[in-house]
Amino acid sequence: MKKSGMSLLEIVIAMSIAITIFIPAMNMFSTAGQAVFKTRNFSFANSLARRISQHLMVMRFEDIEEIPLPGISLCDAPVGSFFGPFFNNTGSSAGAKRITQADMPDFYNYLAHHDFRYSLSVSNVSFGDGDEIKSVGVLITWNENNKDMMYRLYVYVPSL
After folding, report:
1. Smaller CB count within 10 Å for the chain: N or C?
2. Are residues 70 and 119 in contact, defined by beta-carbon separation less than 8 angstroms?
3. CA distance 123 to 133
4. Of 139, 153, 137, 148, which Cα lies nearest the Cα of 72?
5. Which CA distances in Å does 136 have to 13, 26, 51, 108, 121?
6. What is the rounded distance in angstroms from the CA atom of residue 142 to the CA atom of residue 69?
7. pLDDT tens digits along 57-115
8. CA angle, 42 as apex, 38 and 45 as ends, to 5°?
9. Which CA distances in Å does 124 have to 111, 135, 140?
């Protein structure tokens, strides 16, 4: 009579090999997911800072003022701010979309969840012959996994 089966030792060895492979694989997927999450928030902060810097370049020189930390929240931004209205895909004010719960609920929830804010650090530099520039530090702050994160971008605005 031929016995075919597995001994307890063979099962234990097979389980230990499977666990040795399974744990690093799961760790790899977890790390990749966190990297995607961080990259998304960092890229979003970068695009916000670029949008503000472009807006600063077309603003009147005298109107550029400091906005101290903790900054202004992007959710429900006032109409006169950098993000009110956020975009307008029509030629009239009826198409203007603001970052509110009513106009953009998913985007609003994302910004509110991470508490995205912006602030400006403004330094005036005078060259003595009437030429001036403003060195503006655009600071985007947000909360990621209960850690305060910050992205900083500098733009130099001439008085011309």
Report:
1. N
2. yes
3. 8
4. 139
5. 63, 44, 13, 27, 6
6. 12
7. 888 888 888 989 888 888 877 766 666 656 666 666 666 677 777 777 888 888 889 98
8. 145
9. 31, 6, 21
Q: What pTM was estimated for this model as a whole? A: 0.71
Residue type, 14: A
Written as six digits, the tokens of 126 are 């005078």
Structure tokens at 138: 């655009």
Tens digit of each residue's pLDDT (9 = 90 or more) over 15-45: 999 888 888 878 777 777 777 778 889 999 9
Domain boundaries defined on the chain:
8-71+115-158
